[in-house]
Amino acid sequence: MPTAPRQRLTGVDLPNVTWRKARRSGGSGGSCVEVATQGSAHLARDSKDPMGPVLAFTGAEWGALLFEVKAGAHDLS
After folding, report:
1. Of residues 74, 77, 38, the one with CA closest to residue 59
2. Where does the DUF397 domain start and stop, copy by copy (predicted)?
3. Where are the domains of the chain?
4. Are 55 and 45 in contact (CB under 8 A)?
């Protein structure tokens, strides 16, 4: 089933969103993912590029991604 085209978002498009990152990420400036919500959308971006691309997920997509991450499906080691 085809999906609807996605809108291209960047940090510039989302000036009033409050971004968060995991407390365990520390302050070392390493690679971190920041997350936020806006309405029913769940958003993710690279903390080193706050004006760069933003990934937007529906609630169902976000839940599926978190399930897979917790199960180790996306481990890079």
Report:
1. 38
2. 18-70
3. 32-72
4. yes
